[in-house]
Design goal:
Number of helices: 6
Order of helices and strands: EHEHEHEHEHH
Radius of gyration: 16 Å
Structural class: alpha/beta
Strand order of the largest sheet: 1-2-3
Strand content: 15-25%
Bound molecules: adenosine-5'-diphosphate
Shape: globular
Helix content: 25-40%
Number of domains: 1
CATH topology: Rossmann fold
Length: about 170
């Protein structure tokens, strides 16, 4: 059996923020490899396509061999089983995250007893940050420079100026 420590960090990443990156960097102190697993949820209409979300994460890590970027659909427990990686990393920002994350971790374990969830806490400066808030601030004309990597800032500008604007970006600015 390999001694390599691997973990999966699942999420929507619509788009990836400095908060996610903070968690990934902390995770790399514990794990040898982290698979950033981007969820495709047919019920949600994300601002960025799956390919755009994957590409932005790739660009942030500049081919770091310890970071893998992948996509998945359906149950996380099925995905981690297929991958043979039973450790899941999640970020905890505030008490509001705790309730949802606690429930999800216990449910995942109930479905598959092998799955363990590890919670990491971000730097205080990112503890208020979410992808949803970034999109909201951008839409209302605020600066998001300290909140997202340069590539995401650029992509948001492109989306905003695209003739076929996503409903999430249609008001104000
Ligand atoms: P969701 O899974 O709710 O769509 P995201 O894709 O935004 O959420 O996030 C994936 C994971 O990253 C979740 O565990 C979430 O709590 C965590 N996360 C998101 N933003 C931050 C942040 N600013 N600091 C720490 N963790 C975060």
């Amino acid at each position: 059996m390999s001694n390599t420590k691997n973990a999966v960090y699942p999420g929507s990443y619509d788009p990836v923020t400095n908060g996610h990156i903070d968690i990934i960097e902390r995770g790399l102190r514990i794990f040898d490899h982290i698979t950033v697993a981007v969820l495709t949820n047919p019920e949600k209409q994300p601002l960025f396509t799956l390919d755009e979300r994957l590409e932005m994460i790739h660009q942030c890590f500049n081919k770091n061999p310890r970071i893998k970027v992948d996509a998945f659909e359906g149950l996380l427990v099925d995905y981690v089983d297929r991958k043979g990686i039973h450790t899941v990393v999640r970020g905890l920002r505030a008490i509001s995250d705790f309730e949802v994350e606690f429930q999800m971790a216990l449910m995942n374990r109930r479905i598959n007893r092998e799955v363990e969830t590890i919670f990491l806490v971000p730097s205080v400066c990112y503890s208020f940050l979410s992808s949803r808030l970034v999109k909201e601030i951008y839409r209302l004309g605020g600066s998001i420079q300290q909140m997202v990597p340069g590539v995401v800032d650029q992509r948001l500008k492109e989306k905003f100026h695209s003739p076929k604007k996503h409903p999430a970006l249609t008001e104000k600015r």
